[in-house]
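Record 1 of the preview.
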Amino acid sequence: MCMETHINDWNQVRTAYHVARLGTVSAAAKFLGLHHATVIRQVTNLEEELGHKLFHRHARGYTPTAAGENLSRIASVNEEQMRGLVGLIQEHGSKVTGELIVTTLPRFNTLVTSWMAMLQKENPGLRIKLIIEERALKLEYGEAHLAIRAGLKPTDLDNIVKHLLPIQVGMYAHKNYVKEMGTIQSSDDFSRQKYVLQTNSPIESIHKWIDDNVPLENVSFKSSDHVALEKAVIDGMGIGLFPTFLALENKDLELVMPLVDEWRSDLWIVTHVDLHRTAKVKACSDLIKKQAQLILSRNT
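->
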């Protein structure tokens, strides 16, 4: 008959996790602000409760056993979630101060950075951390306070989602390239142009169009980095894909072929339901929406 094991003191789990993470009792004791003997006692008590050794003891420190590695892996997730929870609890202040974590996609990092500069100038007490990732960070765990996402409308039930901008992608080139190579007037022109392309296009219709119309030998430059792609187009290496609202901000870029309806998407601003009314998240959200409206008015 299997007897259920209960952990009476979860502080012991946290202590064992940091011993595993740091490798020695001394380092864990210093990190946790505990006495050396207290750390040893908590680890020993936890091993007795679980009925398994969690560490191999040796002169150089503590090495997790298989059981210790399992405990450490689960505890690390709990530790991260707890930090996120504490962050959520502490965010309900009225001042626009402290750390603000914003996340967006690589395509929009330059634009969002300019918005964050405006926000920080208006709120000098704000410390802004901008995370550039394709992955959708989990706002409910405190990984970010505000996200700017592209594509279909996010459907997370715990998040507040507002439409920010329509995204129409087009083919653009530097004006000097256009002067030399001309624009695309028909399918006959595809094979005489050079192309600067993203390694993997996130919009399926664009990916299909490239496969159907762009000869491989005409691709002069490819990269997964949008800053590198933009620089390649500016330097005249070929035609590249740009959201129209970003391309129109650069007077040296010219549209080289008619816009394709299927190359459309949307940009969304996402905040967690528990944080969207806090002072710093609201200040950030309001500024971003204001700047988005200015972009729309300039592009109209």
